[in-house]
Task: structure prediction
Amino acid sequence: MLKGLIALAICTFSIGSWARADFHSVLSYNFGMSNFSVTENEAAIEQTDDSVASGTEESAESSSVSSMAFQLSWEFGHDGSMAYFLDAQAPLMGGSGAAVYNTKIGFNMYLNDLGSKFSMNQSGTTVVIIPTLKYYWGASVGGGYVVYLTESQKKGDIYFGLGLHGGMVYSIGDTWGIKAEAGITRATGIETSGMKMDVMLGATYYL
Result:
């Protein structure tokens, strides 16, 4: 229905003159919980304890990094049903220095008729259509850096990630909205592998 209204608005405003029409890009400011389960790769383990006899191999260890995190996301290239995004995430609080830093690029597919604010302007007259509630799912690729703790020391690793996510946005007024999102990422690092899970709540702003 909303797509039909947009098509009608374009036809009406385009008769006899040129009109500018845009799907707006979106900024998101999100806070939430991030959990990264890390498992060391056996082939990457080196014995660093001088008190252990030579030839004794150090076993691979597992760890979990949990922290409050902040995520900033920019959604662009909207066509009404799909958009691309870039985002970055950093920890706000973590235990004993453990932390995850992450950035990624991906897409969102919207399940309702309209996935973004739509506006059209012609000769000073503006038509604006805003979805009240929208749902989406998406996928992403990216990478980051994880700092984790084992029984003996603190370690770090660079990783590459493939992720899936889903969420919803409820609009408040013409520019702001409330956003909830959950996602999971399969991470493969130089010395580790693991799963990263995020649950975020925040605000969106139409540009």
The chain has one domain: 24-41+61-115+131-206.
